[in-house]
Amino acid sequence: MSPNSQIPSPPPAVLVVDDDSALCAALSFSLQIENYAVQTYTCAADLLAEKEVPRHGCMVVDYKMPDMNGLDLVARLRERGVTLPAILITGSPPEAVRRRAAQAGITVVEKPLFGDSLAEAIRAALARTEKPDTEKDH
Fold it and tell me: How far apart are CA 99 and CA 51, in angstroms?
């Protein structure tokens, strides 16, 4: 490797939190094919128990979970300094949920997850967190 070669950066992390383990497995499989480093959690408490959360990536969080709703989970993580962009997945969200998500800067993607809507939301979330080339460390 020449001295001017750059070490490739690790793939962005996608943290998936959904109480449906089959959906977690399916999302993990499809997102790994897209070259993301996927971590899945079947309840909010499992993610909250993590001592460290990746600094580069995004979160895909179900709204309706038994232990805590997805918006409350993101709020708790924000209190801990976690700034990863979040995507809320839910079926037919009421206007109050959409409004609260928008106020928190959280993208809403409706279930069922057809087509590329989730993948597009993840790419958009990651693009918003990328530094322009002029700001990257060389």
Answer: 30
For 111-136, how does the pLDDT look when each residue is reduced to its tens digit (9 = 90+)? 999 889 999 999 999 998 875 443 44
> Is residue 47 within 8 Å of 91, Cβ to Cβ?
no
Separation between Cα atoms, residue 55 and residue 32, nearest integer Å: 18
Backbone angles phi, psi at 8, to 5 degrees: -60, 140
The answer to whether 37 touches 17, Cβ cutoff 8 Å, is no
CA distance 121 to 108: 9
Contact 13, 56 (CB under 8 A): yes
Separation between Cα atoms, residue 74 and residue 76, nearest integer Å: 5
pTM: 0.88
d(CA 113, CA 110) in angstroms, rounded, equals 7
Are 87 and 63 contacting, i.e. CB atoms less than 8 angstroms apart? no
Q: Nearest CA to 54 among 6, 16, 8, 107?
A: 16
